[in-house]
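Appendix C. Worked example: D-alanine--D-alanine ligase
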Amino acid sequence: MMVLFGGRSGEHAISCATAGGVLAAVDRTRYDVVAVGITREGQWVLADDDPARWAITDGRLPEVLDTASRVVLPQGTVDRDVQVVERGQVARTLGAVDVVLPLLHGPFGEDGTLQGLLELADVRYVGSGVLASAVGMDKHVMKTVLVGAGLPVGPYRVLLPSAPADPASLEALVAGLGLPLFVKPARAGSSLGITRVTDLAQLPEAVAEARRHDPKVVVEAGIVGREVECGVLGGRRGAPPRASVPGEIVVTDPRHAFYDFEAKYLDESGVTLSCPADLPAGVVAAVQDVAVRSFEALGCEGLARVDVFVTPDDEVVVNEVNTMPGFTPYSMYPRMWQASGVDYATLVDELLQLALERPTGLR
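Step 2, the predicted output written as structure tokens:
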């Protein structure tokens, strides 16, 4: 199996940290592991498979650095071998790859582009296919699909790349949404480029910050409610998807206006992750139902984390669907499955088995 991580997106370091957790947990007696990193410039290189190399330590974010090696995927449906090409050397074969675990977050990894490459190489991989990955990455398209499937989504507006971003145009765009607003890159994760706007005068700067990450921007109305997440795991041998117990995120440090990048990864003391969430049984069932329906509406495979708001009157509103959620041992997705009776190592194995079960090509 190949553990693939890093990548060109702003979530490069988080992908590396996720890989560290998986490399520590995968059963080396059952799987021959090859670690392959993708640099920020897109080069595929043989990587150190020592989990400690990829940990976030004292605020230091890990990074895949370029080396003299280049990793080459199989070039067709009858070729299963992965090769390494080193400067001045004859290409050597690492062996056949049965399954890839693509632990990339954000554009150029989680958005269907990598999945398309693996489909062309006829290689099995963990997680959603091309379409579900692309839809899940684009908050605008994702919301459109969820609404079409009858799922509850909060009010929002979309600022297309060609749209003007002067104050008057922006105020007209968000009219009726109220305050606060959350301005987000349409196709980024890990809270990158997100701004909480409490005054319309802040809107142009917030849009500029979001457009540093993506020319398409989503502006969402603030929803009063608890931030709750639910993990979904694909079913084995045609069985329906499974939902974990929900977890809840509570930001306790006033320095963080919401669950931003720093609160997620660099200042964990400012956040409480409650798992399982303290919710009435009926609300838990509603969250799990919405999570599974969202998973199926997007056509997800393998895994997804569905983020929702639970309002004071116990309405469940979908925030977003993450088709490759953070996967360190401390991330919410594995923690929710741990609380559901599936430990981290077992969860990794289950995902690999789900990928190995499904056919390549159209399905």
